[in-house]
Amino acid sequence: MKTEFSLAAWAARAEQALDQHLPKAEAEPRRLHQAMRYAALGGGKRLRATLVYATGHVLGDAPERLDALAAAIEMIHAYSLVHDDLPAMDNDDLRRGRPTVHRAFDEATAILVGDALLTEAFAVACRSALPTERLVEIVGTLARASGSIGMCGGQAIDIAAVGQTLSLMALEDMHRRKTGALIRAAVRIAAIAGNADGAELAALDDYANALGLAFQIKDDLLDVESDSATLGKTAGKDDAANKPTYVALLGLEGARSKLRLQGEAIDQALQRLQRDSSALHAIGQWVAVRQH
Amino acid sequence: MKTEFSLAAWAARAEQALDQHLPKAEAEPRRLHQAMRYAALGGGKRLRATLVYATGHVLGDAPERLDALAAAIEMIHAYSLVHDDLPAMDNDDLRRGRPTVHRAFDEATAILVGDALLTEAFAVACRSALPTERLVEIVGTLARASGSIGMCGGQAIDIAAVGQTLSLMALEDMHRRKTGALIRAAVRIAAIAGNADGAELAALDDYANALGLAFQIKDDLLDVESDSATLGKTAGKDDAANKPTYVALLGLEGARSKLRLQGEAIDQALQRLQRDSSALHAIGQWVAVRQH
């Protein structure tokens, strides 16, 4: 049986879940809480939260059950953007079409906003009404995906790689950590919440892995093909910063062809699920055609 | 029945637990992992880990059961020091008698080291073999204590307070968040692990609250009374940075008297426990007489 879904409705639902689970702007310390809300609310593609809801949908789970997890993973994502934008890291002024947190507030506040969003994400996840044995597995999954062999490790490799020529394998290793790990975690935590069996977990992980790569290849393509106004962040900055990208390594046509291959890998992984996976399929389509 | 204990042995045990639970130095990305180990190992008073073991000891828990929690809370503490020392925050060059992480490595690495230590702390806590319903409560307690109304919030208030005259109440509110919250969490997570009842939780929380205040008052006193070589960090920096302290507000004698009052509050709280609480008492003594 096919059930209705809307990616836009899930993204809006994630925004509401964030609004509800973030500290209130009027609670002390107010400036920190206002900056946390500035960083986490008002924009963003909500890809990770949408993946949580979509995976739940495929497994027959109601979105209400997943709100805390959706908010938690978007808070982790928002923290990573705030810290990546810092002067000592990518030194970026623009994010989602607005000044970055350290520009809108100040650098010390931006460091604390990232720290607090990351920490509160675990507090929010713990508030989820899921069975505790699954919740422990979910929190551990989130932490490993964001930690030193996951997202933090990917950013460390990224920083060390500026100005270097990476092999395709090294570039993929970096992206698997930097953006791929949290995208895989989004699917996996919803799969754990939805009691997926071993074969389903494996198929979903293959799906998320291909999706994460597709997302990054498209990001590299957009950096070349688009402009800052459409992107909501500085366009052309990879090339300006001499960063290794799929376009730099494979050329425009090579990168586009690799993106199509990920689309095929996504289809194959979803076929193995033997469920109505149209929601996850739609996210795969969207990732490949998005304009920002 | 009185049982033997050694604060020094617990501190050494925490060091071993950290060594075991931190990512290995030879695992990729190596520079990040080496910097994480530099930040977390080799020194430190291990007050928070010792509180975990001592609380367990008072409640009849073996230390083996608490190693992951002891490592996790020291990782959270280490992360907070790395970020507090950053140029945009306290801009400190010396910590535990060695160059701070951003001096020994670089600023981007120091930001990532803090992020990764914080994140991995939750992964480590989840590895604990405690019953999952207690583990979820413990992880939530750690996250709330470290988050925006706890440690991060305290640091935000601290930064905003530089150069300002604070009331005693505002100073205490700041310290209750900045250092007190994690000290209370150390006692509380071990109390949850040890299945303390409501009255015991309340007595232990009052103990930890007084201990946290005593720790901070002593810190302010040491900043005035000691030298950098003994402290292992820059002495006299509170006054130089025009930071509000107990000494600035109450004078030397006033601060010493307030420290004695916390000692009495500690004794009273421990009496309510109706257990052999000599281990927690010894930590209270140590906090008041320490030289660094």
From TrEMBL, chains A, B:
State the needed cofactors, names only.
Mg(2+)
Instruction: State the Gene Ontology terms under molecular function.
Output: metal ion binding; prenyltransferase activity
Q: Which UniProt keywords apply?
A: Isoprene biosynthesis, Magnesium, Metal-binding, Transferase
Q: Can you name a GO cellular component term?
A: cytoplasm
Set out the biological process GO terms recorded for this chain's protein: phospholipid biosynthetic process; terpenoid biosynthetic process
Q: What highest taxon heads this organism's lineage?
A: Bacteria
Q: State whether keyword Metal-binding applies.
A: yes
Q: Which InterPro entries match?
A: Isoprenoid_synthase_dom_sf (IPR008949), Polyprenyl_synt (IPR000092), Polyprenyl_synt_CS (IPR033749), Prenyl_diphosphate_synthase (IPR053378)
- PANTHER family according to UniProt: FARNESYL DIPHOSPHATE SYNTHASE (PTHR43281:SF1)
Q: Which family does it belong to?
A: Belongs to the FPP/GGPP synthase family.
What name appears for this protein in its UniProt entry?
A: Polyprenyl synthetase family protein
Which species is this record about? Pseudomarimonas arenosa
The organism's taxonomy opens as: Bacteria, Pseudomonadati, Pseudomonadota, Gammaproteobacteria, Lysobacterales
